[in-house]
Amino acid sequence: MSSQAKSPFPAGFTITTPRLRIIPLDPENQEHCEFLVHLWGTELFTKTLGPSGIDDAASAKKFITNRVLADYERNKHGLFLVLLYNEETKQTTPIGTSSLMKGAPPGAHYLLPDVGYVILPELNGKGYATEATKGLIEYATKDLGIDGVFGFTGPDNIASRRVLEKAGLEFRGIADLVVFGRLSAIYTVPGMSEDLGVYGLNEEIRKEETATADK
Ligand SMILES: CC(C)(COP(=O)(O)OP(=O)(O)OC[C@H]1O[C@@H](n2cnc3c(N)ncnc32)[C@H](O)[C@@H]1OP(=O)(O)O)[C@@H](O)C(=O)NCCC(=O)NCCS
Predict the structure, then answer these.
(1) What are the structural domains, with CATH classification, of the chain?
(2) List of residues 6+ apart from 39 with CB closer than 8 A
(3) pTM beyond cutoff 0.90
(4) Is pLDDT of 111 > 80?
(5) Cα(126)–Cα(18) distance, integer angstroms
(6) Distance, CA 124 to ligand 1 centroid (Å)?
(7) Per-residue pLDDT at 181
(8) What pLDDT score does 28 carry?
(9) Cβ neighbours of residue 200 under 8 Å, at least 6 residues apart?
(10) In what order do the strands lie in the sheet with 182-188?
(11) What is the per-residue pLDDT across 196-213, written as a single tens digit (0 to 9) for each?
């Protein structure tokens, strides 16, 4: 089953943006495992998204093996590692994760993936999340032929909403999404249907902003 999933990506597979290199996570790569523990353990992450449950390299390895590789195998996308590329030294350094996620049937899921991102707090504000998001959306549409991409985020996560807007997504409203079980601001790339039900998103969408204290 999922533990036997194999990555469909050829060795060296990379999504390239001007400053970043976005690559698949490798459960056998200790640096990947340790970085995930660090990134998802920062105060900003836990305060915004809650505890990840990825507390040590062994749990990161298990998570990548069982969950991330299964997503790659099923969709050719999922959770990727974001590296900062240094033009002078030609070296890369992990700075975040960027994701294009679609749930596994028969669970609650929509027919198109949604983008996600986490960047090390000390490197926030430099446009890295926006650049990674644009890179993943281009990969989804051009390389995988995916017709549209969602962006879901807590209505009060201003930085995240800004990332989606800067990456060119359009605000569609607020809804209590079954996939997250909480209130989310919903964005889509331009050109998607007015009726989000055609993508399996049938929750009631409110157009107006709310003053909720959601994450
Ligand atoms: C959200 C996150 C990924 C942003 O990463 P980043 O690399 O700093 O993003 P960018 O630099 O591309 O863009 C951030 C934008 O938000 C703005 N911003 C950040 N905090 C803000 C605030 N409190 N109020 C208003 N704008 C804010 C920045 O100024 C920037 O916009 P600008 O370029 O117009 O100035 C990062 O803060 C993070 O990892 N947060 C925790 C995880 C998370 O919330 N992920 C999203 C889950 S849906």
Answers:
(1) 2-199 (3.40.630.30)
(2) 45, 94, 96, 97, 118, 120
(3) yes
(4) yes
(5) 13
(6) 6
(7) 80
(8) 96
(9) 109, 110, 111
(10) 15-16, 20-24, 79-85, 92-101, 114-119, 150-153, 182-188, 170-177
(11) 999 999 999 998 765 444
Dig out the tokens for 105 from the structure: 């049937």
Maximal C-alpha separation, the chain: 51
- Amino acid 165 reads E
Instruction: Report the C-alpha gap between 207 and 36 in whole angstroms.
Output: 35
Alpha helical stretches, state H, 6-117? 30-39, 43-49, 57-63, 69-75
Separation CA 203–CA 174 (nearest Å): 10
Number of CB atoms found within 10 A of residue 176's CB? 14
- 16-64-189 Cα angle (round to 5): 45
Residues enclosing ligand 1, CB less than 6 A? 44-45, 48-49, 116-119, 124-130, 153, 157-160, 162-163
Q: Tell which atom from ligand 1 comes closest to the C-alpha of 42.
A: 41
Three-state DSSP at 3 gives helix
